Amino acid sequence: MHELIDSTEPAIGSLAEARAAIDEIDAALAVLLERRTAVAGAVQRLKPVGGFAGRNPERERQIVTAMAEKAPSLGPERLARIMNVVIEAGLEVAEQRRIEQHRGAPDES
């Protein structure tokens, strides 16, 4: 797999350049988070028990450990906090989509 982002510190000479760089990164993060949410929704549909009840703490630790290897300055504790929010938001979206699909399903009575 190729590197998504060059993690070296960029040469930024002004506050405006720094903010523009952050805006660009935030836009990429938004797209990646949307994609992650979609894939996590597929995981929820494939699990025998989905949603918050189906959370897998061991899998979440594996995710954080792998991320910490790629982002050592953030470390596992910070990444665990970040990923907890990301995972919970994804579960909320999956649940919302499940409810919306259920409402849109033809009545079987």
From TrEMBL:
Residues 9-98 form the Chorismate mutase domain. PANTHER family: CHORISMATE MUTASE. GO terms for molecular function: chorismate mutase activity. The keyword Ribonucleoprotein does not apply. It comes from the Bacteria. Pfam families: CM_2. One of its GO terms (biological process) is chorismate metabolic process. The keyword Isomerase applies. Keywords: Isomerase. Signal peptide: none annotated. SUPFAM superfamilies: Chorismate mutase II. This is Chorismate mutase. PROSITE patterns: CHORISMATE_MUT_2. InterPro entries: Chorismate_II_sf (IPR036263), Chorismate_mutase-related (IPR051331), CM_dom_sf (IPR036979), CM_II_prokaryot (IPR002701).
